């Protein structure tokens, strides 16, 4: 019985953690980006943020496109 309770507790903790990650990620717009044979997303995003003015969305999208990422 203790083993079953422990498994249930671990499963609940795992599901709770994954739900939190989903909610946190829902606030970010990263899910709208798609890439095939693209540079790793985090690297591309960091490089484009450094290179492009943060108020120029079109330039940022162009920079990401150069790295293989498009936005849907």
Explained architecture:
With 72 residues, the chain is mainly alpha-helical. The protein has a domain of 38 residues. Strands 1-2 form a two-stranded antiparallel ribbon. Helices cover 64% and strands 8% of the residues. It starts with a helix and ends with a strand.
Tags for this entry?
72 residues, two-stranded antiparallel sheet, 64% helix, mainly alpha, elongated, 2 strands
Q: What is the alpha-carbon Rg in Å? A: 19 Å
Supply the number of helical segments: 3
Beginning-to-end CA distance, first to last residue:
50 Å
Q: Give me the side-by-side strand order of the main sheet.
A: 1-2
Helix % is 55-70%
Classification by helices and strands: mainly alpha
Model regions low in confidence, pLDDT < 50 over at least 5 residues = 17-27
H/E topology pattern: HEHHE
Task: Give a quick account of the main beta sheet: strands, pairing sense, barrel closure.
Answer: 2 strands, antiparallel
Percentage of residues in DSSP E strands? 5-15%
Output mean pLDDT. Answer: 76
3D shape: elongated
Kindly state the number of beta strands.
2
Organism: Brevundimonas variabilis
Protein name: Lipoprotein
Signal peptide: 1-19
Keywords: Signal
